[in-house]
Every structure is written in C-alpha cells, then in structure tokens.
Amino acid sequence: MSTVVAQSLHAFGLRSHVANNILFFDEQIVIFPAGNHCVKYNVDQKWQKFIPGSDKSQSMLTLSISPNRRYLAISEIVQEKPAITIYELSSIPCRKRKVLSNFDFSVQRFTSMAFSPDSKYLLTQTSPPESNLVYWLWEKQKVMAIIRADTQNNPVYQVSINPQDNTQVCITGKGMFKLLHFAEGTLKQTNSQRGELQNYLAHAWLADDKIIVGTDTGKLLLFESGDQRWETNIMVKEPTSGSKSLDVIPESESLVKFPPVSSPLPSYEQMVTTTSQTDRVAVPQVFAIAAYSKGFACSAGPGRVLLFEKMEEKDIYRESREIRIPTDPQSNDPNQSDKQDVLCMCFSPSEETLIASTSKNQLYTITMSLTEISKEGRYHQRFPRTRRNGNLNGEAAHFEYLLYPLHSASITGLATCIRKPLIATCSLDRSIRIWNYESNTLELFKEYQEEAYAISLHPSGHYIVVGFADKLCLMNLLIDDIRPFKEYSVRGCRECSFSNGGHLFAAVNGNVIHIFTTTSLENITNLKGHTGKIRSVVWNADDSKLISAGTDGAVYEWNLSSGKRETEYVLKSCSYNCVTISPDAKIIFAVGSDQTLKEIADSSILREMSAFDVVYTAVVISHSGRMMFVGTSAGTIRAMKYPLPLQKEFNEYQAHAGPITKMLLTFDDQYLLTAAEDGCLFTWKVFDKDARGIKREREVAFAEEVLVTKTDMEEKAQIMLELKTRVEELKMENEYQLRLKDMNYSEKIKELTDKFIQEMESLKTKNQVLKTDKEKQDIYHREHIDELINKQSQELQDLECCNNQKLLLEYEKYQELQLKSQRMQEEYEKQLQDNDEIKSQALEELTEFYEAKLQEKTSLLEEAQEDVRQQLREFEETKKQIEEDEDQEIQDIKTKYEKKLRDEKESNLRLKGETGITRKKFSSLQKEIEERTNDIETLRGEQVNLQGVIKSLEKDIQGLKREIQERDETIQEKEKRIYDLKKKNQELEKFKFVLDYKIKELKKQIEPRETEIKVMKEQIQEMEAELERFHKQNMQLELNITELWQKLRATDQEMRKERQKERDLEALVKRFKTDLHNCVAYIQEPHLLKEKIRGLFEKYVQRADMVEVAGLNTDLQQEYARQREHLERNLATLKKKVVKEGELHRTDYVRIMQCPAGTCPLPLPQ
C-alpha cells in the first residue's frame, strides 16, 4: 500500500435524490448524504464526520435510522449488486454492524427501508419488476417474511412499520395503499382498497393504527384500520398580487394525533414522471410528511410547507402556519429561486428544529418558535379568513439555510489561489461560488443567465476569469459581490487558467488557446495546433511553458515566448481528460479514455500505469513532487507516491457519486480539493507517512484584504448617515414611550406596594394578638405550676413532721422492748438458735420482695415525672414552631413580592434592549411604521399579561388569608390539647400523692440496708484504688514500649544513612569506571593519556579517606548487624512481657467484676 494518505475534512454538497436523505442523530447532529459518504454534521460546532460508502460502491439509494438512534441502514449498489449496510452510530468512528448482500430472492435495488420500534427488525422494499416486501431480523441476517407488494410493476414510494407495533406494516405507491400484518412468518393484507385509486406519495403513522397519507393531487387522507376517516384538499389560489398562496379546504374532520416520527422519502424522479407538467402546476404534490407532537408538517407544492395543529375548541386539525423557502437576492431570477420541491423533512428529537431538503440539493432549517406558532394558530382560529399584509392566514414564516447555498448541478470548474484560503467553483446550475476551506464557509455566491463552464482564480485571490457559453469574463471579487470589469468574445470556453505569477491567463476556445495579459488585458498570442477540443491546460512553475491536451489524443508543450510547440505526443485512440506537469517541468502526466496514466518526457512515453478497469478523469501532483492523486469515473480518489509504483500500490478512497471533473492541491500541499458531476465539493487533508520534504511551511499568513468600490463606500456612508438620523429619532421616540410606560408601571407598583404594606400590617397585628394570647397562657401555666409546687412542698413538710413524731414514739417503745428483750434473751436463746436459719431465710425473702417493690415504685414515679417533663417540652416546642412558622411565612411573602418587583424592573430593561435592536432592522419608513404598530400590539398583549399577573397576585393574597385562617384553627386545636394535658396532670398529681405515701412506708424499711450499702461502698473504693495501680503499671509499660520504638527508629535512620553512603560509593565507582573508559580512548596519544590519568588522580585520590573506604565499609556493616540483632532480641522479650502482663491484668479484672460485692479478696500489689 502507498504511504500517501488522504483524510476527508469537509463536504460542500447534498445528494437530494437519495430517499430519506435528512436524519437527526441527536439534537445537534444531522446526517445527510454527500457524494458517496454520509455526513454527520454538528449544527452548533460546525464540524463534519464521515461515514464512507462501501468499497466499490456505485450509488447510494436510501437511508433509514433506527428509533433508538443507534443504527443507520444504507441501501447501495456495489459492483452491480444491491446491498444493505447497517452502521453502529454510537461507536467512534462508526463501524459496520451488518452487511446484507447475499439474497435468496431476485432483487435489483432496494428503494425504501424502515426499522421496527425496537430496532430489531428491518423492512425493505425492492424495485419493480420484483417489488418484493421483505421483513428482516437483521442481526441474524434472517428473512422473517417476504411478499410481493405489487403485480402491475407500479413503483412503491415508501414502506414503514407502526411505531407502536412491530407487526403492522404500511406501504404506499402509485395506486397502492396497503396495510399488512406480520404473524407466523407471513405478511397478510388487512385492508381492502376502495374507491378511486390514487398516486400515494408519502405517509406517516399517527396514534395507534391511524395513518395520514399525501397524494400527487394535493390531498391529505386519514386512514384508521384501513378505512378512510378524514380528507383535506390543499388548493393553490392566485391572489390579486400575483403571488401564489395556499389554502386548506377541509372536506371532513376527525380527531388526529401524530407521533414525532419522520417519514421516509419516495424517489423524486419516480414521482415526477407519474404526473404530467400541467398537473404539477394545477395542484401541489405532497412529497413529504413529518409528524410531531402537536400535529404534522407536509410539503404543499414548490417552496412551501404547511403546519397542521390540533384545534383547542374541537378535536380536529387545521392549518396553523405556512413556511416558505425564501427568495434568493443573488439569483438571476429571485422569483424562481423558491420554486423547488421539498423532498424530505425531519424534526429534531425535542421538536425545536425542522430541517427540509429540496430537489435543488439545498438544506433548509427553521426553529419552531412555539410561542409565535401558537399565537398565529389562535389568531387563525378566531379569525380564519382575515388577511394581514396581503397574505391569507397571516404572514408566512421562512426557512433559513442549514449550511449555505449548495450547487444543484454538476461542477464544471474548480480553482484555488495562493494568498487566500479560497476555492472558486462554477456549475451547470449557472452559479459561481467562492468557498473558504479554512473556515468551511461560503464567501460569495452569484447566479447568472448563462451556464459557466470554466473558472480560474488569480493567485492574489482578488480576481477570477470565468468562461460562459457566449463570452469570457474577468471579474472582481468584492466584499459582497462578484462584479465583471472586462468581457471577451470567446464563446464556449471550457478551460481557462491563470499563470502561477498571475500576469497571464489562458482561455480555450474549441481547439485554440488564447493567451491574455492581466496588465493591459490584451490578447498577446493564440496557440493553434489541436484538431480536437482541448480538455485541459496547465502552466509550468516559471510560467514559461504551457501544456495542453485534448480529445484528439495530442499532448503539446508550448513555448510562450515564441508561441510554438516544443514537444508533442499524439495517440489518436485516446481522448485525454486531464494533464499536469512535474514541479521541475521535465515530465508530463496525462490521463484519458484508454484507462492508463502516462508519463511523457521529450515527446515519448516513459511509462504507462494501468487504471485497473476504470477511466482516470483528473490527475494532480504535489508541488513537492512526492505525492500524486488521480480521480476516476467511479468517483473514487487514488493516492499514490511518486515515483509511480510498478504494481497496484495506491490507496483508494470513496469520494463522489459521479465521475470526478476537477481536482486540485493547495499551494502548501496540505489540502486536496475534488469536484464531481454529483455537484459536491470535497476538501481532503493529505500527507505522506514518510514525511520527507512534503510539508511546506507558509512564510506569510493568508491575506485579509478585500476589494471595495468607491461608489459602494459612498453609498454605504450615505446609508449609515440616514440610519443614524433614524436611530436618533427612534431613540427619542422610544425614550418618550419608555418614560410613559415607566410612569404607568411606577403608579401600578406604588398601588401594589401600598396594598401589600396594608396586608403586611394586618398580618403583623394578628401576629401581635397571637403573641399576647400566648404570653397570657404562659403566665397562667407558670402560676399554676408554682401553686402545685408550693402545695406539694407543704404536704411534704407536714408528712415529715408527722413521721418524726411517730419515730420518737417508736424509739421509746423500742427502749422498753429492749429491756424486755434482755430479760427474755436467756429464755429465748435456745429458741433463737433454732429459729436463726428460718429467720435469716425469711428476712432475705422479705428484703428481696421489698427491694423489687421499691424499684418498681421508683420506676413508676420516674416515668410519671418524665411524662410531665415531656409534655412540657412538647408544649414549648409547639409554641416555638408556631412562632417560627409565622415569622418564616411573613419573610417569604416579603421576599416573594420584592422578587416580583425586581422582575418587573428587569423586564423594563429588557424591553429597552429589544427596542434598541429592532431599530437597526428598519429598511424603509413605511416598514418602520408597520413594525411600530406591531410593537404597540405586542405591548398591549404584555399589558394584558401584567393584568393577569396582578389578578394572580390577588389570588395569592386570598390564599394567604385562607392559610392564616387555617393557622387559627390549628392554634385552637393546640389549646384543646393543652386543656387535655392539664387534666392528665391533675390525675398524675393524685397518683403522685399515693406514691408518696408508699414511699414513706418503704423508707422505714431502708435504714437497715444503708449500713450494708456503706460497707459495700468502702469495698468499691478499695477496688478502685487497685484499678488505679493497674493503670499506672500499664502507663509505665507503654512508656517503655515507646522508648524501644524510638530506639528502633533511630537504628533504622542509621541504617538508611549507611545505605545512602553505600549508594554514593557505588556511584563514585561507576563514575570512575566511565572516566577510566574515556581515558582508554587516548591510549595512542601519550600526552593526552598522561593528562587524563593526572586528572583522575586529582579527582579521586585527593582525599585520604578514600583509600580506606572498603575496610571501613565492612566494619560498619558488622557493627550495624550486631546492634540490630541486639535490639531485635530486646524488642521480642519486651513484647512477650507486655502480652503476659496484659493477660494477667485482664484475668484479674474479669475476676473482680464477676465476684459479688464484698466477697472478692483484693489482689496483692506486685
């Protein structure tokens, strides 16, 4: 393979006759065919990426994208056989997923395709005479069903699958509208065609099983389950002004709802041939239908699209807006520039953008301004027959170019220059276009009465020479126009070319070459010698020679100084298409009808290279002389390295869908430019992988100067003065109007602020009343709680006094009983001994019983107290939340209305900016007056909107009042809850009184246990002291461990230092070895060797310590190993000791915690 590579950069063109030729990949990326590629174009960032056609592809027929936007199907003719290639769009770059090429049924080409809703199935339609409808499971290349769609060889324009059901299929064609159902491997027709058969051009699926269909007689038909439900005629009427406008006459009405799915396209040539020319003029043909959520769009004759929307009052659809292709001021007949049929339409996924392609290879777009369309729609529904600005149903919207105006016919001329990044093209569409290959834009564009056959661009980029059918023109490239300044009577000029220096240009008239000078604009010589038409001329590098080739098989090299031929080569059996010359002007390269590339030098052929069954139509060689490119009749480009290879060593690229007509390289050899009969212009980035002397650096940047005539400058200055005066007048008028509006708005704002301030004051008063009520309630509750506390404390004091008296009486009785017991002690000593065990057991049981009972009562008391505290906290929290809610609501209302005031001010400033923008767009005083009236109408509408806003604010105030009323109701509910809590508190106080009495009874039984508790506390204190000793021991052990870790880190640092010393010594040895190796190089020169050895001695032996490095190193290593081993042994013993002491401490702690109080002996201190 060749090392010369070409990468496609940008395509200027569209293939409009590919069915379904405009698709959306996402909201920003559009897919359309150009040449033999599919182009992915980003509308916002303006970049292009390419999906090249299959190898040896001859033509692209139809496109289809899956509903999930993941797959793209392309129908092609590859080597005279049909094929369907499915690409995966999500991968970068797009890769082939499947290729359907081997078929078990007869097929010539696929004319229409459609994916199923789940993207698993593909429906394809073949061309007559077979007309097979094939239902594919494309992932497995399996045919699920096949049926012959038509037996009368009528064309089928479109097939589709129901977007809600994989099994429902629709096909439309000439005299054909069929609905089929897929079941059990077969397709069965479910409808029967009734009435008059029509030519159905396009259709789109609606909700469920409804379909809208367009015909070549301007009819829109709605079918449901195969039966016609609704019909509308689109009629062309001739207004008095002479311009055509469209009106829709509904014959029957029905509820229609359309899903946002784009319709595939029929073949434009087939549709046009099915109707006569008189029918096309009489009625608009519906070539395309695209559905979206609010309705659908359909083409309605040349240059027009109608939007249908659902009416609000009725469940029907009527025309809501007309969209037209605008007239082109650069056209030679602006009234005819919009006479082109819309062949395909597509809505973006968000339905914000509509893109349409036309029969003249143009792409148009329009943004679906929902507010404007809805306003126009409401206006039409209220006043359906009102005329505004002379048009029925209001003023029509206009498309804009998606890219720029493109060529609509074969490109016959191609040229570039040196000082600017410009490309000049001319075409059979009678236009001349100037492109910029750096910014990928169209600089200038103009159409003429005659066809342009040849074009050449001056090296400076300021002039062009164009060969028309009846004359040769020299033209200036002005800033906004292409203006001729010299005409020559050279008829049918098929080739023209400026010299490399720009001082001469050559023009071909039949078999004569005319040479003109650009200084005096005179014909200085004529070169005669060809017997056939001359097809190609080229200058050598120094402009001293001119090479020409023609259909007579002759290749001549002309000397311009003498006007005679220097060399010649004639082969009458070959008709040459293109000729070029090497940079050194020694070798001529020619291509022609004999399918070879010839190298000619000194009137003889040096070498012939076969084209391998294609005809070369163009050839170009780089200025460096290392790269060569040839164009073929199949539309491909072959990149090869020079000198030419002996074998088939070249890179072939798919480029155009027709024979390449022209091919050029830019002056810096960076870009290849190709043009073809398909009307497309491609730019390619070229380079040589070997990269030897190919890239030529540009010494001077591209020129930015443009030509402007003096009259144009004076006219523009005059226009600027007039516009300035108009701007000043409009500014004063707008300022006056704005002042009036500001005064009006300020009064309204003042009224609103006063009203809102009154409302805020009323809310503040209500809030203050609520606060006073809350404070009163707080005071009442505090007083009530204080009374309860005092009452409880008084009752406690009375109980304590009573208990003290009882205790004194009991103490006296105790003294008496003690004396009595002493007397009876001896008597009952034996009985006590007998009953000790019984008494102790009974005592323990009673003690446990009463302790449990005491704990139960204390827990009940704590729960009751906790409930009281919880209720008080809930009350405080509720009160706090009510206060915060009221404050927050007041603050929200305040900020809300302040924000609305700021929004009103910002809208005023925005209106000022909009009026400043609109004053630049007035072209005449009458138009200014009309637009000012329109502004007044819009401002009136805004005034109505503001009144609506005021009404909505009043509704908000009423809502706030209702919220305040609801808050009052919630406060009443809270008060009821507080009353219930008070009742519960009284009941709890009664319960507390009962518990207090029981507590007093239990306290009598507590005293004997207090002594035991003291003993237990002493034991606990002793145990805590023991724990403190354990903690101190643990701290000491941790300190020891930290010291050991510090020692270990110190040893590690010393070890790292020693390793660093070792590395330094190794580096020193390496440096010494390298220096010694360098000295060996001077072994034949004793003096230099002696100096190098002395330098080594001074460098490495000047320090005495260097001699003892090896000995010290071994001693240090031994000492380091000994210390490390000692520290490791100490660390291991300390770890074992710490683990052992930790286990002992843990066992002691567990034993102490498990022993009952007072029974565990204290451990001995270690």
UniProtKB/TrEMBL annotation:
Record localization: Cytoplasm, Cytoskeleton, Cilium axoneme
Protein name: Cilia- and flagella-associated protein 57
Species: Heterocephalus glaber
SMART domains: WD40 (SM00320)
GO cellular component: axoneme
Function: Associates with components of the nexin-dynein regulatory complex (N-DRC), a key regulator of ciliary/flagellar motility, and might act as an inner dynein arm (IDA) hub or linkage.
Highest taxon, organism lineage: Eukaryota
InterPro entries: Beta-prop_EML-like_2nd, CFA-57, WD40/YVTN_repeat-like_dom_sf, WD40_repeat_dom_sf, WD40_rpt
Underlying gene: Cfap57
Ranges of the WD repeats in the UniProt entry: 404-445, 527-568, 653-686
Annotated coiled-coil segments of the chain: 814-1068, 1117-1144
PANTHER family on file: CILIA- AND FLAGELLA-ASSOCIATED PROTEIN 57
Keyword Repeat assigned: yes
Alphabetized UniProt keyword annotations: Cell projection, Cilium, Coiled coil, Cytoplasm, Cytoskeleton, Flagellum, Repeat, WD repeat
Homology family: Belongs to the CFAP57 family.
Pfam families membership: Beta-prop_EML_2
Assembly notes: May form homodimers. Associates with components of the nexin-dynein regulatory complex (N-DRC) and the CFAP184:CFAP263 complex.
Domain EML-like second beta-propeller intervals: 412-686
PROSITE patterns named among the record's database cross-references: WD_REPEATS_2 (PS50082), WD_REPEATS_REGION (PS50294)
